[in-house]
Amino acid sequence: MMSRIFPLHTSIALFLLSYCECKSFKVFLVSSKEGGSQPLKSHVPAALDVSDIQFEDLPLLVRACRLPAVLDETGSLCRAGLAVVLRHIISKTLEADPSRKDVMALLGFKKTCLKACAEVSKWTRLCEIDIPSAVEAHLKTPTSLQKQPPPSILTLERRLGEPVKVHNDDKIRRQKLKEQRQSKRSLDSEQSSLELRAALSKLSVDSVPSAATRENSEIRKVKTTELPPLEHVFAEGLYFTLTDVVLLPCIYLYLCSLQACEASALLQLPHLLRWYANVQEVPGVLRAAKACGMAFSSPHAPINDSPVSPTEDNPTSQVEENEGHGMLTQPAFVGGPRPTMTKLKENGIEAVFAPHPRPDWTLPWDGLPEAINPTEGNMSDVRTVRKRQQLNNLVAMVTELARPSNTVVDFCSGTGHVGIALAHALPECQVESVLIENKEESLLRAQSRGSELGLKNIGFIQANLDYFTGAFHVGVALHACGVATDMVMEHCVQAGAAFVVSPCCYGFIQNAVKFTFPKRFVAHVVLFQEHMILCRFADQTAVQLPPERRLIGKQCMGLVDLDRSWAAETHGYSVQVMTMEPESCSPKNNMLVGRPPESSGLKSAVSRAGAHI
């Protein structure tokens, strides 16, 4: 049986390397114990180049991240987090062998499989974090306490039971109707047969059986709404993707743990068991599983296609409720933001902007190397000037806060405008660019610019924010979109670090896994819907709008950011909301500057304990 000595994220990465037959990586097994990881090598696919290393000997960039992680040849770019690492393994496999269409298919429709970060995508969080964590916790729990499947697995079971919607599925559904009418066999056997054949055909040169042929007139006349739905074959629908690769080692270990005790839990998982059987039909899965020590066996349990009934004792109900809680509903715009602004004003709350301490400060642009200039592609001269003005504001405030030997982190760094300017302006500080939105091409451009400048005090990390665990002193973000601003501020508070953040895209703010809004205004009877109205109107500051409307938008920006600043101040921070100079540098010209409590100092990555803002 697959060894449980590895964390599940490690097992998943090893399984994908084996499935892809990828030999582009040298694998290091990290151990903090004496004696290295020699005993672990017997549980790793033999084809991999494996070495052991102590945690203390890892490069600093890797030590600042949760594993698994990939360090590039230069040592200046680290990719961290399960989904980011897995997608990079696929990229390197295709780079070595472009003919591997089965590997390309793992990225799914438009190559977006697990691309959305877990901080905002509930599906990514379920597959990348919740299910692996739940299985690891389950394996540590005595059998006598395992009364039912973990809530996250019940959520997956429910998802697998939902109808599948795929691009241009009309032909497959009409073929399904045709086979149903022609066959006297039970619907279940035929449905499973057609969907599975359609799924496996994508991994071969064969087409979907008869699905591409013209249907008879009777079938063509059937309305789309009356066609039979498609059932899940794999986690994301009809096709085998990276999500299935992530889930397979998790579900394998979970089912193995149940085989030694009562199988009553399996009665609640009919769709999961069908998925588990389907995955084993995929070419290459059994080979990769064998290399990783996974010995499949079929769990025996009566298959009941009835959905699990949500009851007070069923964890699925709570999971569904929690998932729905974060969804943004369209607010009623009756009266616009004025009623909410009036309500806050009656409670003594108005947008207040602190004076800018260094309004005239500027970088010496004319004397700086060209690679620091924010010009990108066809950026106009006017836009270039505004971008320089934005950078002046952030760099001015960071240089006030940072001290020699400090680590400054540029979150949501894009192509590195802020981070590169800071690394040049603060040669005695270490600057790290953390790319939260996973746009790898942007980070590669930033790395190229840093290399051109010969900067030695800058490193680049492609990771979702939760996977960056390094200690730092100042966090900075220029135009962090929507809740990304809140994620950056929370990360800085957890680290005891100062922050300089310029928010953007207020209209995209919504309740997420970690955050509910408003944060502090709720004490003054501002409801979620009212806060959403403030956010929507905070985006109405474009220069082409009437001045009065822009003024209301600016006031809404100030109120939303005041709520954010109050949340940080509950942790002892001193926070100022100010306007960047000149105001014309951006329609989104707010800047939040937060200083940690004098006595807090810098918290270690290990001691950060659940500061939520």
UniProtKB/TrEMBL annotation:
Give the residue ranges for region: Disordered. Answer: 300-337, 592-613
* Domain of life from the UniProt record: Eukaryota
Family to which this protein belongs: Belongs to the GSTCD family.
Read off the Gene3D superfamilies from this record. Vaccinia Virus protein VP39
Entry GO CC: cytoplasm
The residues the entry assigns to the signal sequence are 1-22
Q: Which UniProt keywords apply?
A: Signal
What is this protein's name? Glutathione S-transferase C-terminal domain-containing protein
Q: Where is the composition biased (Polar residues)?
A: 306-319
Q: Which residues form the Methyltransferase domain?
A: 386-510
